[in-house]
Amino acid sequence: MALPRPRPGILEITPYVGGKAKSASSKPVAKLSSNESPLGPSPKAIAAYRELAGELHRYPDGNATALRQAIGRRFNVDPDLVVCGAGSDELISLLIRAYAGPGDEVLYSRHGFLMYPIAALAAGAHPVAAPERNLTADVDALLAHVTSRTRLLFLANPNNPTGSYLPATELERLRAGLPEDVILVIDAAYAEYATAPDYASGLELARGTPNTVCLRTFSKLFGLAALRLGWMTAAPAIVDVINRVRGPFNVSAPALAAGVAALEDLEHQEQARAHNATWLPWLTREIQALGLTVHPSLGNFILIEFPSEPGHDAAAANAFLEAEGIIPREMGAYGLPGCLRLSIGREEENRRVVEALAAFVAGRR
Ligand code: PMP
Q1: Cβ contacts of residue 341 below 8 Å, gap of 6+?
Q2: Taking a C-beta distance cutoff of 8 angstroms, is the pair 305, 339 a contact?
Q3: What is the pTM of this model?
Q4: Which helix (H) or strand (E) holds 305?
Q5: What is the complex's ipTM, to 2 decimals?
Q6: Do 74 and 291 touch, CB atoms closer than 8 A?
Q7: What is the CA(116)–ligand 1 centre distance, in A?
Q8: Which residues of 26-47 are buried (b: 16+ CB within 10 A; e: fewer)?
């Protein structure tokens, strides 16, 4: 008897494993494994979410009208050119599903976000990784890997997990070098944290070209990861296509309400940004001072490289930190087994990280 078989490519997928939430340690847990906001969401977003409790029998607004308008005001984009999704993850999948299938290629940078190859394989398309230079996307290498089968190119800017970014001029060079029928998806999940003067989120390119998508999320600076809320903007033809393939009520009503309230709370956004602007450089400096390599990051996380000797390597550091109640993200799935990624936490969490790493480097417990 023939058993059901998935489509080609599906069994090549290594399932995405999220950051751990628990450690076996009896110490207080510092969950620094998923680049979440240590400040949590705006109290106004929590209130808006709670208010929805009386309306759970109602379907959400399938057009996300109020949220798209709030996004339009906050980010100066046309609300008609915004599509909301259940996390930017859903929009990544929808873009690939709508534009790529068997025989097509989805291009990304070697240490790009894991969902790009996963969503490509799920759609029956072929993921293609272009090499990087110094853990940074390389425009020339990306362009060299474009073929007549390339349909989309995904670039996280800043990138998770490396923290590196391409300046605005490089993004423009990439777009200009790509064939017009290739969609460039600039995944700007960490844009709100990016402070470099030559950084651009891709909103301008999405506005000014017919084939560029800018992808954003409420999971990071806005602190709403649990609600699953993301959005994208692009030219009308792309927006029209995604609206055809998305589910009619793909974003929940509590997420819509909390998203609007979060956007309106500029003070909370500023606090979250200021917190990161203080503690990202502090952690980077303190950990570098211990003799470890910390890659420069524009996000809300750092990538730490450990020596390769057993006992001093990333696996040993991970075990040591977990025993201290600190949970980093191991990077084997990203092809960086010598590294750990750590989110920027609350002040006391950041101080514990430095203390624990100092003890690890000194070989004490
Ligand atoms: N893109 C990048 C670069 C990310 O790091 C993440 C979250 N880890 C996402 C997209 C997905 O975010 P979400 O689905 O929560 O919006």
Answers
A1: 33, 35, 161, 301, 302, 303, 304, 328, 329, 331
A2: yes
A3: 0.97
A4: strand 301-305
A5: 0.99
A6: no
A7: 10
A8: eeebbbbbbbbbbbbbbebbbe
> How many CB atoms lie under 10 A from the CB of residue 307?
16
As given in the structure block, the two tokens for residue 258 are 């909390």
Pocket of ligand 1 contains residue 191 by CB under 6 Å: no
DSSP codes, 134-179? TTB--HHHHHHT--TTEEEEEEESSPTTT-----HHHHHHHHHHS-
Position 119, amino acid: A
Q: Whose CA is nearest to atom 2 of ligand 1?
A: 189
Closest residue by Cα to atom 12, ligand 1, is 88
> How long is the chain?
365
Which residue, 356, 303, 364, 282, is CA-closest to 325?
Answer: 356
Residue 63's CB is within 10 A of a number of other CB atoms, namely 15
CB atoms within 10 A of CB 21: 10
- What domains lie within the chain, and their CATH numbers? 19-40+267-362 (3.90.1150.10), 43-264 (3.40.640.10)
How far is the centre of ligand 1, averaged over its atoms, from the C-alpha of 365 (Å)? 35
**Which of 365, 233, 321, 338 minimizes the C-alpha distance to 32?**
321
Per-residue pLDDT reduced to its tens digit, 300-342:
999 999 999 999 999 999 999 999 999 999 999 999 999 999 9
